[in-house]
């Protein structure tokens, strides 16, 4: 009896479009939540990847600039359907968020304000925390095999909590595991070095070329979470060019927090505020373009990292540190999301539903409805 035939290339592309398009719509909560949602879809439900492959991709995306969860989508797309799959998965994840942000930017420019989304996030955040916790448990079984990697993860979480730079922690985790397992004296040779941002020439007024250059620089050089992006942009757009006020930048932060998808789509909002639809398109393309290039270049190399003892040890160290960082971010998110009996019930109920393999999209939609019906409580 013949097995089920492999899907054709066109079928795989349609699957990628459907999966990552859906994730782009329900992907609230930042990179840790996005990666957890991706794991539910591509590891548990569809079995396109193993947990080992998934956690390796987490480690690799943390070592290159750009939006981590978007790059994860691109990596999965490339493994599933080659270069075309990379582009399809990346765009499917980005475009829904861009469309939502563009609509909110229009409302902001037209009416001077946008919905806060507090009630929406009130119900969704506990669900997201449960999804991330489930992913962390699954990843830990693979990535934290042995006391050394457990120690690296715990140390990374604690040091990040007191303000140590995440890229430093990833590099230190890689070096620690490689030095103790392989015994090499120079494990840091395989770790990338962060280049300082090159200064752009000042512009007297808003123009698309300079706007594109600002966001291209951010997409090509920025490490860390989307919140680092905001500090990065403040230096260029508020302090140096004077195109935005601090209040407008804070509004951009709020929009990024209450919309799904990558926080880098803040570029869409800022681009529209500064130069309408052309500005939104230029800023969006500029900030995401480097990620497509980085993933296309590093993807084939990443597949061979497990073949050598040194690079495998470095990758294991990065993975352990990345998992520690995910745990620390999740704890921070849980502290703000689970704050009353209803959110505790949402967290517990979501955990139980995940055990019964209820699809993530159903859980997020349920959290959305419950949050809107209950409303966001007054107070911190």
Q: How is this fold's topology laid out?
A:
Elements: H1 9-26, H2 31-45, H3 51-62, H4 68-111, H5 118-143, H6 147-161, H7 166-181, H8 208-221, H9 226-240, H10 246-258, H11 266-302, H12 309-337, H13 341-355, H14 360-374
Helix pairs in contact: 1-4, 2-4, 2-5, 3-4, 3-5, 3-12, 4-11, 5-12, 5-13, 5-14, 6-7, 6-12, 7-12, 8-11
Characterization of this structure:
The protein has 380 residues and is mainly α. The protein has one domain. It is 75% helix and 0% strand. The chain is built from 14 helices and no strands. Helix 1 packs across helix 4 and helix 2 packs across helix 5. The termini are far apart. The C terminus is likely disordered.
Offer a quick outline of the entry.
The protein has 380 residues and is mostly helical. The protein has 14 helices and no strands.
